[in-house]
Amino acid sequence: MTIDSLQGVYKQELRDLYSGNAQMLALVREFIDRASDERLRQMLRNTVDKIEAHNETLAEVLGAHGESPSGERCKGMEGLVREAREHALEEQYGDDAVRDAVIIAQMQRMTHYGIAGYGTALALARALGFRDDAAALDESLDEVYDGDLYLSHIAERTVNERAA
């Protein structure tokens, strides 16, 4: 496939985000069942809702440009999900708090990748003059940042202390 415009790059970025979110969503659902800290479990449940909403937004933005969200496989998130599954779900831990700390660490790795993707898509939307797209992407980016900060809060205030 040849991409010959910034708008093509933008659409590819949006599809990549959609794919990455879908991959992360499946794993977050698994994390909910394995997390022992109630605040972490609730945060993960909220994350599922946010990811679903973000993918609805991405589908709407792409649809406004006559595009479908399918057709892209985010290989970066694929690797992060594979690693997160290995570390947080397949490893054996003698202490649930330690697993919770690993879940948070892996969530933050995936979240930071998402922040990079949303930031890139937002910058492209602004460069292309897509104000409505930019507003929607900016809102999603803010929510991803907030989730990352809350993960840090849970880690620093309870989980890491219990795991130590």
Q: List the helices and strands in order.
A: HHHHH
What share of the residues does DSSP label as strand, in percent? Answer: under 5%
Number of helices: 5
At the first level of CATH, the class is Mainly Alpha
Amino-to-carboxy terminus distance: 50 Å
- Largest sheet, described in full? none
- Care to count the β-strands? 0
Radius of gyration: 17 Å
Number of self-contained structural domains: 1
Mean pLDDT: 96
Apparent shape: elongated
Helix content: over 70%
Secondary-structure content class: mainly alpha
CATH superfamily: Ferritin, core subunit, four-helix bundle
Gross CATH architecture: Up-down Bundle
Unreliable stretches (pLDDT < 50, length at least 5) are: none
- According to CATH, the fold-level topology is Ferritin
Describe this structure in words.
- This protein has 5 helices and no strands.
- With 164 residues, the chain is mainly α.
- The chain has a single domain, classed as Ferritin.
- The longest helix has 33 residues.
